[in-house]
Amino acid sequence: MSITLRQIRYFRALAEHRNFGRAASEMNVSQPALSVQIRELEAALGARVAERRARDVSLTPFGRRVLHHAGRVLEEMQALSEAARWHDGLSGELALGVIPTIAPYILPGVLASLRTRDIALDVRVREARTETLASDLRTGRIDAALMALPLPGNDLESTGLFEDRFLLAGSAARLAALGETVPNPTALGTSPLLLLEDGHCLTDQALEVCGRGRGHAQIDTGASSLGTLSRLVAAGFGLTLMPEIAAPTEARAAPGLVLRRFDSPEPARRVALVRRRGAENAQWFDDLAQVLRAAGESLLATARADWGTGR
């Protein structure tokens, strides 16, 4: 019996997508090429692993058993690959995922620092939402991800980097209407709150700290980026919560944007560097965390110099 890693990877993609076309697209091969590999896998195993249907594909009972073993094989291969790549520390190629509400603000400093440490380091950045990055971590498409806690699953582990507090953002007129102080986000009353579209963890965090649900009459979750939100609230269309890490950049880009701190204790998110649980305890992860922590703390220091510390 001769089974290849290619066949195992193709089979896992097919199991995930339940469709030959989508699985082939993920593997960057043609559908016939993927079908051939699945047939060869079945021939090697001596039994069918998938039932072909008109609209989708379902695993056979034997196929589900094979999928369990395939996952273990691919995890071990990923661990072996990481051990080989990172045995000398942070070097070679790094695939780093970052959520969109952090990426544009922290990456310039991080990439410059990494290049200073090792000019030969090839950094590939994947900007995506939390659930997508978690999936990429599990399948080995990326080595680590920068995201906000809590972790999206028990199969991931993290090391904390910094606390990113939320500022209240709006136009001067909107903020003046609230009075001199806003003790906490739940005291925003009936003020319209503009947030990022669903799927961004920042939206979930903002709704939680403001004590509002998605069905609230004064909630608009249509913006695709913090840059869009900044310009909308600067023009007077409502209020939003602005992470400190983004505040200096967005304040410069939207001159009418006014930022105000909440009273203590301020709402905040915890930002962490995340990887697959059980990955080899290599020095590169700690080195990368140190670089990210320094870059984040530098941005936070700028924000706290401009808008006070609040604590």
Please give a structural write-up.
It contains 11 helices and 11 strands. By secondary structure, the chain is α/β, with parallel strands linked by helices. Strand 3 (93-98), helix 5 and strand 4 form a beta-alpha-beta unit. It has 3 domains: 5-85, Arc Repressor Mutant, subunit A (Orthogonal Bundle), CATH 1.10.10.10; 93-162 and 269-307, D-Maltodextrin-Binding Protein, domain 2 (3-Layer(aba) Sandwich); 163-267, D-Maltodextrin-Binding Protein, domain 2 (3-Layer(aba) Sandwich). Helix 1 (5-17) packs across helix 3, helix 2 packs across helix 3 and helix 5 crosses helix 11. Helices cover 46% and strands 20% of the residues. The protein has helices at residues 5-17, 20-27, 31-45, 61-85, 103-117, 130-139, 172-177, 201-210, 226-234, 247-253, 283-307; strands spanning 50-52, 57-59, 93-98, 122-127, 144-148, 156-170, 193-196, 219-223, 240-243, 258-260, 268-276.
Principal-axis shape equals elongated
Largest sheet: 7 strands, mixed
Number of strands: 11
CATH level-four homologous superfamily name of the largest domain? Periplasmic binding protein-like II
User: What distance separates the N and C termini?
Assistant: 65 Å
**Number of folding domains?**
3
Helix content: 40-55%
Tell me the structural class. alpha/beta
